[in-house]
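Minutes, structural biology subgroup

Action item carried over from last meeting: produce the structure token record for MICLK protein (Thinocorus orbignyianus). EB confirmed the sequence was re-checked against the source entry. Recorded below for completeness.
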Amino acid sequence: RKQATEYSTSSSDDEFESQPSLTHKTKRTLRRRRKLEKETKQLIKQEELKRLHKAQAIQRQLEELEERQRALEIFGVKLERELRGESDSGTKDETQMLHEWFELVLEKNKLMRYESELLIIAQELELEDHQSRLEQKLREKMAIDGKSKE
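Output recorded by EB:
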């Protein structure tokens, strides 16, 4: 009986001694998890800022593009009137005006293609942002599920 009592006492002492180390390990694990979560949040924020800056740059380019298209439109209207003979432009010959007209049409088409590319890039950014938000929600739900299982 004496040995049994000593054994049970020593084993309960071992359990008691291993308990603080377990909590220490748990604390360390929690610290690591929090640090990882913090780093992940920072990376997500950086990605969001990059997308925001890119979206702002695209918006500026679209505005500049719109101004150039308006200027071309005004010049095109003037050139069209000259070609029809509605305007007084005795200095230019018809071949010169036609050449300018075709250059104008080419430039306008080029701007329209560029605008389409910018709009596609903007849509891509929106999709990336939406994906990022969905991934964040998934991480949060998985973290909640993980905590409820523990």
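Discussion: The helical segments are 2-84, 94-149.
Next step: EB to file the record with the rest of the batch.
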